[in-house]
Amino acid sequence: MANQPDRHARSVLPIPDRAYAGSILYDAKNPDNKFPPIQPLRPPQGAPNVLVVLIDDVGFGASSAFGGPCNTPAFESVAADALKYTRFHTTALCSPTRQAMLTGRNHHSVGMGGITEIATSLPGYTSMRPNTKAPLAETLKLNGYSTAQFGKCHEVPVWETSPMGPFDRWPAGGGGFEYFYGFIGGENNQWDPALYEGQTPIEPPKTPEEGYHLTEDLADHAIDWVRQQKALMPDKPFFMYFAPGATHAPHHVPKEWADKYKGQFAHGWDRQREITYARQKELGVIPAEAELTARHAEIPAWDDMPDALKPVLEREMEVYARLPRTHRLPCRAADRHAQGDGSLRRHVDLCDRRRQRRVGGRHAERRVQRDGKLQRHGCHRDA
Q1: What does pTM read for this prediction?
Q2: Left (φ > 0), alpha (ψ -120 to 50) or beta: where does 163 sit?
Q3: For 15-47, what is each residue's pLDDT tens digit?
Q4: Interacting residues of 189 by C-beta distance below 8 A, sequence separation 6+
Q5: Residue 362 in 3-state DSSP?
Q6: Nearest CA among 89, 95, 130, 101 for reference residue 113
Q7: Burial (Cβ within 10 Å: 0-12, 13-18, ≥19) of residue 215
Q8: pLDDT tens readout for residues 249-289
């Protein structure tokens, strides 16, 4: 079968079924009663596995693979055996960039002129992808790929994000993904997220006190899905879209991870730009004749910042520098979250919204425990 030519009419999707045009005899024992075997749909021979990793708010000069201060040895390892692309155009917003990438179309043509939360009925800004514009995952699925999405979505119109749907624009609804594990909105608490599996709201497998972090959970589910897919369908390629939310607000990073960069940004952001610029030239990711873009007048110089504020800004840079590395958090320090800064461990508003959506005995028990902690910290929740 591997050497047989591809006989599918792939110019139309779904690929039209072919009706049997031969004769059917009444006697099943007749040797002339022969029919072609049933063959599962597969992509053309040599179709590759595809993994797309999309990380929020991480610029071209952030990772060490491209000269940045964020230590990303895994990225460097992949880049050493692959290609580095030095041009990627974004819309400077989350939902539009994602929808453009997932459909291969201009973001306005798929209704995503802005993020979903500011949608209007103005054409191009409805946040509703027309059913005449198929997403990439749907195209691959209809050509025989296994498809899965993990992490952040932010492509569903706000009024369709409840467990009642409709699900036409959900990843595992009309988005083309056979499996989805993640969250629907633009941001989520990384310690205690509001999760969906497919179209069903679920509880995280562990509590923050037990060492839970969403990005590690996403990675575990992604690895398990690939293992299962390759075990059950080794001849079928996959398309995986992995989009963690750790680098988007809120910035939830374990304290000991952020501390790994302690003191490395005392020079401030102006000097950091110069350091990154020099490293990028050494790596060849920018031309030798490239000039460093002038700092915009609306962005204050580091030297002009008040001395009392500089430690706070320095800490923000330390926290952010660790975000790309939180894609595989260690599990052994189960109590690490309790040691972190409360502002990093809890985003109270997100937790409150999540409580209003969740039901069930396990959640009720966790809610009582959580409310007690919030009260000890001087926070109160409306009944």
Answers
A1: 0.78
A2: alpha
A3: 888 787 888 888 878 888 888 888 888 998 899
A4: 214, 250, 252, 346, 347, 350, 351, 354
A5: helix
A6: 95
A7: buried
A8: 888 888 888 888 899 999 999 999 999 999 999 999 999 99
